[in-house]
């Protein structure tokens, strides 16, 4: 939260300068020239630092702003690098190809999209990680859909929808734990209250993907399934032992072993499978972990599908995360985000307007701060008193923060979540965002519930806030 007792909150016009610089630069670089967003966010961070400096902030204060923001997400960056290793090793060891092969064998073509949505949801719920799910189940799903002739953007939308839905209702998710902790709301109260809005969004998403599946794939129209299954059999040894690493990772996370050691176990066990089952060498394993797996078969499409992963593949995501965190950290620590949010707080006379304002603020910070954690923390702190004034339980606020902050993160092309999806699946947010139905639909459902007063639970006059754990 922004705190500075030496300087007043910067004026609104000053806070808008870095936003305008970033917005204009992003407009040219991303939307006109299809360039990477890194330099645009760097310009925004530079503009934020200069505005803060000329307003009176010392360099040490500005430096501490981006340093502390980056420090808070170091564990997430480490997880990101480990997932890069996991993707390459699980492909090289035959784990992902095996998932694809049996997916071709047992999945009913027309039901593939809704089934992969549910499967991704379940995996993210168990593991508490949308990124891990995208990097494993998502990669396999892309291969299956390619064989079925389903456009990759649609499949990516189903994977992203399921992965982030499961992440949101998982008690093992870091962001799901963070959101209620900011406002002192019980974790399971928060999760249960989210179900009122996420379940309708899930049901609608399932209907949409079912319709798309029946339209896109007809009986017997399996595209190039035979091509991919033959290629998998030619290049990988399939065995029951291939499923030990995924089962091990799931077991460790269910036992509440932290994500980093669980994912490391997945990498190491995958490496053992690579050497024992696929006949790979230790030197090849080491090279795969860093540079990614490269398949050299006679089919270019199969090569492109399976050649990915490695620590190296995550450098783009890591660099973007560092730059965006620097931008968001400077904006937060110097009070410029605080100034913008205060301006938006004037629209909160009704419960519906309050809900929409919180949603809009979270999305706004997600866009220009490129940080889903900041998009939850700052609006949560800013609008807490507004919810108390209206006698609303704070679980209403935490639910809104998730709908506007964390679920919209993968829809923003320069957000680290979206860049990770692109690195893992090869599909940009601009392509899959329209099909990530659950991610944007949840925010709409939350807004409707706010205006209609549906499940906007009131705090009774005799009920102390700390007992807010019942429905």
Protein described:
Pfam families: Na_H_antiporter (PF03553). This is NhaC family Na+:H+ antiporter. Belongs to the NhaC Na(+)/H(+) (TC 2.A.35) antiporter family. The model is unreliable at 466-471 (pLDDT under 50). Helices cover 72% and strands 0% of the residues. The chain is mainly alpha-helical and 471 residues long. The protein is built from 23 helices and no strands. It has a domain at 74-314. It has helices spanning 12-32, 38-55, 59-72, 74-92, 95-106, 112-127, 130-148, 152-168, 174-183, 187-216, 225-235, 244-254, 259-276, 282-291, 300-306, 315-333, 336-344, 351-369, 374-389, 394-406, 416-425, 429-432, 437-452. The chain is globular, with a radius of gyration of 23 Å. It starts with 11 loop residues before the first helix and ends in a 19-residue tail after the last helix.
Quick synopsis:
The chain has helices at residues 12-32, 38-55, 59-72, 74-92, 95-106, 112-127, 130-148, 152-168, 174-183, 187-216, 225-235, 244-254, 259-276, 282-291, 300-306, 315-333, 336-344, 351-369, 374-389, 394-406, 416-425, 429-432, 437-452.
